[in-house]
UniProtKB/TrEMBL annotation, chain A:
Residues 21-219 form the Electron transfer flavoprotein alpha/beta-subunit N-terminal domain. It holds the Pfam family ETF. This is Electron transfer flavoprotein beta subunit. InterPro entries: ETF_a/b_N, ETF_b, ETF_beta_N, Rossmann-like_a/b/a_fold. SMART domains: ETF (SM00893). Belongs to the ETF beta-subunit/FixA family. The lineage of its organism: Archaea, Methanobacteriati, Methanobacteriota, Stenosarchaea group, Halobacteria. Keywords: Electron transport, Transport. PANTHER family: ELECTRON TRANSFER FLAVOPROTEIN BETA-SUBUNIT, ELECTRON TRANSFER FLAVOPROTEIN SUBUNIT BETA. One of its GO terms (molecular function) is electron transfer activity. SUPFAM superfamilies: Adenine nucleotide alpha hydrolases-like (SSF52402).
Automatic annotation (TrEMBL), chain B:
CDD domains: ETF_alpha. One of its GO terms (biological process) is fatty acid beta-oxidation using acyl-CoA dehydrogenase. Transmembrane segments: none annotated. The keyword Flavoprotein applies. GO terms for molecular function: electron transfer activity; flavin adenine dinucleotide binding. Keywords: Electron transport, FAD, Flavoprotein, Transport. This is Electron transfer flavoprotein alpha subunit apoprotein. Belongs to the ETF alpha-subunit/FixB family. InterPro entries: DHS-like_NAD/FAD-binding_dom, ETF_a/b_N, ETF_a/FixB, ETF_alpha_N, ETF_asu_C, ETF_asu_C_CS, Rossmann-like_a/b/a_fold. Gene3D superfamilies: HUPs (3.40.50.620), TPP-binding domain (3.40.50.1220). The keyword Flavoprotein applies. PANTHER family: ELECTRON TRANSFER FLAVOPROTEIN ALPHA, ELECTRON TRANSFER FLAVOPROTEIN SUBUNIT ALPHA, MITOCHONDRIAL. Residues 4-185 form the Electron transfer flavoprotein alpha/beta-subunit N-terminal domain.
Length: 266, 317
């Protein structure tokens, strides 16, 4: 069985930052593995450990900088990685869901995995749509926002029994035929830290670089119908009373308010 | 045509609030495009749902009677068939967990650009949408370079439609292909029951990512004890396994409305706010003065919880 995991390197923004045009200035960004993808990687690696013959391949759309993040996934147990990049992607202002779908579709067609795991969303642009869009494009079944997966049944019977995390503390129990795309929610497992041994082994694992040409794609395939025209800090709607002073002062003022409201009264 | 097709949502026999919000948002768009607002009601007791959602501003309601509960293959097929029939400019869907289980498939199947989690929009021959990025730190403007588009709207951003409308209700034959349905809902499970019901508490001390380490939880437990409060948390604390699911406040956890909600080290992501914005008094302690939690707080301390919380505990001991 082969599992393909999509892995995205995302930028995290510091508390104080500046916007330049339609981007956050580079010096205020720190790059890391997308939180949801960390859980997706863990779920795939757990399948590989539970099964006899499960290969886990990761795919990333990202520049050379993202190799560090990919190595981290390899160190956690991913067998090999694919990194898609191209000058055309470097120049693109924005990759919309449709463009990402076309790229990943080409990778799936080459790899023919039985399962694709994606994070529910990326914490930078938070579209939350690529996994399901991809499933439709490659004619796989799917389930979005999966927070439990029965790995033993999956390996034995080729069907994915999942829980989908709905709103309001309700989970939907669903049976999904394979091949399938599952979008993985945080909390489904406890992502491991890479071991020193894993980090060493990751150095010799393959990261295959592919450009659009390698994937049989052209410029038109990565053109986005969505254009990012503005980025700004939302106006603060706060009318909160902010207590001033050091920790003792502010705690004292807050305590007064709490007592007025009857808190802590015997 | 410049019509709008909006899709309603229900679960276990009841329409969800988003169904009435897509009506308001859909009417707003239809007024801008000069077209009609069509509503789709798919699966379950469609006649009952159609009657309930027949609010002011709806022009036509199309029912697709097939199955009971939400199934993404059915919804995808039904919405695509309605699109082929009505040829709307905009397909409007909720940005709910189920919305995100079929909207991307609809957009892909119809080759429509997709904008998700939209909080505001304008129509000027094409759609311009407002959405957030980087966990609500920034807002962005997205122009759609196409005449037709699929959109999902964030819950709670548009008011619910009301009033009784006189839209015509028509049964639509979507010709659902049963062979193409590859997933089956086998049941539902309520999660988060247990020893404590945080939705009963009058005072909640709620802890978030800012607590950093599991062993630091002791600090907020002490505070909760000192205040006679119940301890709750935001999602990352439950994801990490530090507190059980029944302590989680937010969209996928519990909705709480205590007299006092004291948020410690919680930034106030939209999913969290959805679960506690109805609290009577909201107090936030956070290092980041721009954290969205301060937008809805009544009182705030911009500071390090590790300095402030011990002082606050002292005040009540």
């Amino acid at each position: 069985m082969k599992v393909l995991v999509t892995v995205k390197e995302v930028a995290e923004v510091e508390d104080d930052f500046e916007i330049e045009g339609t981007h956050i200035a580079e010096q205020f960004l720190e790059y890391d593995l997308n939180e949801w993808d960390d859980y997706a990687v863990e779920e795939a690696v757990q399948m590989q450990e539970a099964g006899d013959d499960v290969e886990v391949v990761s795919v990333t759309i990202g520049p050379e900088r993202s190799e560090e993040t990919i190595r981290m996934a390899l160190a956690k147990g991913v067998d090999r990685a694919i990194r898609v990049w191209d000058d055309a992607l470097e120049d693109a202002e924005m990759l919309d869901v449709a463009a990402k779908t076309r790229i990943l579709q080409a990778v799936v067609e080459a790899e023919e995995p039985d399962l694709v795991f994606t994070g529910v969303q990326a914490n930078d642009d938070s579209f939350g749509a690529t996994g399901v869009s991809l499933a439709d494009a490659i004619d796989y079944e799917w389930a979005a926002v999966v927070n439990a997966l029965d790995i033993d049944t999956l390996l034995a019977e080729n069907v994915a029994n999942v829980h989908r995390e709905l709103e309001g503390g309700v989970e939907e129990l669903t049976e999904v035929d394979l091949p399938a795309v599952l979008t993985i929610q945080t909390g489904i497992n406890e992502p491991r830290y890479a071991s020193l041994r894993g980090i060493r082994q990751a150095q010799s694992k393959e990261i295959a670089e592919q450009d659009l040409d390698d994937l049989g794609l052209g410029l038109a395939d990565v053109e986005s119908d969505l254009i990012l025209t503005d980025m700004y800090e939302p106006e603060s709607e706060s009318d909160a009373t902010i207590f001033e002073g050091d920790a003792g002062d502010t705690a004292g003022q807050l305590a007064e308010v709490l007592r007025e409201k009857g808190v802590g009264a015997e | 045509m410049t019509d709008v097709l909006a899709v309603t949502e229900h679960r276990r026999g009841s329409l969800r609030d988003v169904s009435f919000e897509v009506v308001t948002a859909g009417r707003e768009l239809a007024d801008a495009t000069g077209g009609d607002l069509h509503l789709a009601v798919i699966s379950g007791d469609v006649d009952k749902f159609a009657e309930q959602v027949n609010c002011d501003g709806v022009d036509q309601i199309h029912t697709v009677a097939y199955g009971e509960e939400f199934n993404h293959d059915v919804y995808t097929q039904a919405v695509e068939a309605l699109y082929d029939d009505l040829s709307p400019s905009i397909v409007l869907m909720p940005n709910s967990v189920n919305g995100l289980d079929y909207a991307p498939a609809v957009a892909n199947g119809l080759s429509l650009p997709l904008v998700t989690d939209v909080v505001d929009f304008e129509w000027d021959g094409a759609l311009t949408a407002t959405r957030e990025m980087y966990g609500s730190k920034v807002e962005t403007t997205i122009e759609v370079d196409a005449e037709r588009v699929a959109v999902t709207i964030r819950g709670g951003e548009w008011p619910a439609a009301n009033g009784t409308g006189d839209a015509e209700v028509t049964a639509f034959d979507a010709d659902i292909d049963e062979g193409a349905i590859g997933s089956r809902v086998t049941g539902f499970e309520e999660v988060g029951s247990g020893d404590v019901d945080i939705s009963d508490a009058e005072v909640l001390v709620s802890v978030g990512r800012g607590i950093e380490e599991e062993e630091n939880l002791e600090l907020v437990e002490e505070l909760a004890d000192a205040l006679g409060a119940t301890l709750s948390s935001s999602r990352p604390i439950v994801d990490a396994g530090w507190l059980p699911k029944n302590r989680q406040v937010g969209q996928s956890g519990k909705v709480v409305t205590p007299k006092i909600y004291l948020a410690v080290g919680i930034s106030g992501a939209v999913q969290h706010v959805a679960g506690m914005k109805g609290s009577e008094t909201i107090i936030a302690i956070n290092t980041d003065p721009n954290a969205p939690i301060f937008d809805i707080a009544d009182y705030g301390i911009v500071g390090d919880l590790f300095d402030v919380v011990p002082e606050l505990v002292d005040e009540f001991q």
